[in-house]
Amino acid sequence: MIKRNTKTKQLILESLKKTKSAVSQETLQKELGESVDRATIYRVLNSFCDDGIIHKILSDDGKFYFAFCVNCSEKAHKHNHFHFRCLQCGKIECLPNEVDIKLPQGYQSVNFNGFISGYCSNCS
């Protein structure tokens, strides 16, 4: 749920929902044009992460990408899945299978960032 819903937040959320893949802040900026400034987009994306609406992905190209969450909440994020970046078309996808990583006793996982790059089914 969006806290303090605004027109700008709604625009960004609708854009994320319709892409069906992870997008960068720069991609959102291009899509939204001059209607929303860069700093606002970045601030909204980070607040969406905190609220459990989207999750942030650090790609092998050093950029952050953002993907719409499915079945997550502010207190219960479940993102132990790999992400795939196509080297041809650039699309970044959340792969469907969750990964169960067994950590040594006493260790506690806070973040998982699994990333694979290669060629998607459309480009291979």
UniProtKB/TrEMBL annotation:
Transmembrane segments: none annotated. CDD domains: Fur_like. Zn(2+) binds at residues 86, 89, 120, 123. GO terms for molecular function: DNA-binding transcription factor activity; transcription cis-regulatory region binding; zinc ion binding. Signal peptide: none annotated. Keywords: Metal-binding, Zinc. SUPFAM superfamilies: Winged helix' DNA-binding domain (SSF46785). Its cofactor is Zn(2+). It holds the Pfam family FUR. GO terms for biological process: negative regulation of DNA-templated transcription; regulation of secondary metabolite biosynthetic process. Binds 1 zinc ion per subunit. The keyword Cell membrane does not apply. This is Fur family ferric uptake transcriptional regulator. It comes from Chryseobacterium defluvii.
